[in-house]
Amino acid sequence: MMEAAAASTEIWVLGWSVVFLIVHILVQALSLDLSGDFTIRYLLGPRDEQRAPKSVVSGRLLRSLHNMLETYPAFVALALALAVTGKTGGLGAIGAATWLQARVVYTVLYVAGVPVLRTLVWFVSIIALVLMVVRLMA
User: Fold this and answer.
1) Which residue, among 111, 109, 105, has the nearest Cα to 128 in the 3D structure?
2) At what angle do helices 56-85 and 9-35 cross, to 10 degrees?
3) C-alpha–C-alpha distance, residues 87 and 132, integer Å
4) Who is most buried in 86, 92, 129, 135, counting CB within 10 A?
5) What is the rounded distance in angstroms from the CA atom of residue 9 to the CA atom of residue 79?
């Protein structure tokens, strides 16, 4: 049973979601450094003084990262719950894959400044979580 859960689409997508999260964090952090908005001293320090990035792209990367972190705990919990309960596959797998794809597309659209389509893609990611809940509760 555990081998099946470990090989499930939900766990595979969970792994790739961590890769995406790490890349998103690193790109966002690098954008702060490259934009020149903050000194290296500020970036390496405790950041007691809150500063907002002046760079449009840095700001968008930061906001899109915060947006992802709002739903990421639910995604992780659902992916793990589906694997632990043996309810992998079907709507759960579709929801997991769709959530990750929607989050990647959302980030690209957000950074590019695309307003309405970005919001529609966000809704797709929420619907994907609902699919995972439906599979878990079935």
Assistant:
1) 105
2) 160
3) 10
4) 92
5) 9
Of 73, 71, 79, 66, nearest to 24 (Cα)?
66
Residues 37-68, buried b or exposed e (16+ Cβ, 10 A)? bbeeeeeeeeeeeeeebebebbbbbbebbebb
What's the pLDDT tens digit per position in 36-66?
Answer: 667 777 777 887 887 777 889 999 999 999 9
For 62-99, write each residue's pLDDT tens digit.
999 999 999 999 999 999 999 999 999 999 999 999 99
- Measured distance CA(7)–CA(29) in Å, rounded: 33
- C-alpha 60/C-alpha 84 separation (Å) is 36
Contact 99, 125 (CB under 8 A): yes
Q: Are 53 and 35 in contact (CB under 8 A)?
A: yes
Contact 136, 56 (CB under 8 A): no
Q: Is 119 helix (H, G, I), strand (E, B) or coil?
A: helix
Please check whether residue 46 is in contact with residue 126, taking contact to mean a CB–CB distance below 8 angstroms.
no
Tokens of 125: 């990611």
